[in-house]
Amino acid sequence: MGALRPNLGTMAIEDLRTVGELTARLTDRLGRLMPAGGRLDRLTAELTAAYAGDGSPVDGSACRAVEALAQRHSQHLELHFAPDGTGSDVEMPGWPPPDPDEVRSRGAGVGAVRRLEDGTCVVALDTLDAVGPARPYLDAAAALARGSRRLVLDLRANGGGDPGTVAAVAGWLLGDRATQLSEVIYRDRRRQWWTADRPPGSAFTGDVTVLVSARTYSSAEALAYHLAARGRVTVVGEPTRGAADHVVPVHLSRRVLGLLPEAEVIDAHSGGNWEGTGVVPDVACPAADALEKALA
Q1: Which of 20, 76, 218, 260 has its CA 20 to 30 A from that of 276?
Q2: Counting Cβ atoms within 10 Å, is residue 237 exposed (0-12), middle (13-18) or buried (19+)?
Q3: What's the whole-number mean pLDDT along residues 266-271?
Q4: Count H helices, E strands: the chain?
């Protein structure tokens, strides 16, 4: 599997006074995290050309400007400015463990399950919480959908989450046999994501429509893309945001938290991904009209 990611967590966090200092640190960290190649080179070169030596103070407006430029190359790169501090003394603490009580309090994002008179089941999935605490709710939604003629999976409000939950939902819709979804390419290793083998006859076999919007983001885009690439679903709504990278939290300073790309995702079927383009609907319409359009 190769070495682990660079250990930035032991590096002392120092405050940053200027935008030039912020972008210098940002480009350094990107060079340590992102897979080597043309995209990394273009991203760091453009940041350096635009902001090297910039003496403007670091504030929320400056962070949004640097973020907007960086997102030309990685839609998932985010910079969050916290005037009172980011609340961490280590640069790269990683993602916090899921809080099972919090997941349960929101039903793992299963917003609603409705059975319609024509045999359609509508399942709204608004988050992709960690697969462990989320599985009982996903299994309950699958049980309620069993026997439906058609499934409408509503991801219009889904901002992403756990790739393991992507695999769990995709496996329910792609069949009983394990299927490779993607290969995730890090700077120093690769990881494959697969669905799991299911009990015979437990996968959903009816027609599936997926609803998406400009709010559909990150791993929610992955779910829609993997299903669409295999011809399993019809996608209805608006193009999604186009954030395909895996990211990790990095405290660039005491007041700036970055979500920085550390890996690229390649779909095992298409050989591509949705970075920059988003998931493009088969049936385009305003997000607010997507359910009505799908049912029609």
Answers
A1: 20
A2: buried
A3: 98
A4: 8, 11
Beta strands 283-284; 110-115: pairing state: unpaired
Q: Are 124 and 157 in contact (CB under 8 A)?
A: yes
The reported pTM is 0.92
Measured in residues, the chain has a length of 296
Measured CA to CA, the distance from residue 264 to residue 43 in angstroms comes to 14
Tens of pLDDT, residue by residue over 208-249, are 999 999 999 999 999 999 999 999 999 999 999 999 999 999
What is the SS3 string spanning 108-155? HHEEEEEECCCCEEEEEECCECCHHHHHHHHHHHHHHHCCCCEEEEEC
Domains in the chain, CATH or no CATH each: 1-97+245-263 (no CATH), 106-242+277-295 (3.90.226.10)
Q: What tokens were used for 26?
A: 């940002």
**Which of 173, 271, 160 is CA-nearest to residue 231?**
173
| Residue from 112, 128, 87, 260 nearest 186 by CA | 260
246: left (phi over 0), alpha (psi -120 to 50) or beta: beta
pLDDT in tens, 70-124: 999 999 999 999 988 877 777 876 788 999 999 999 999 999 899 999 999 999 9
What is the greatest pairwise CA distance in the chain? 64
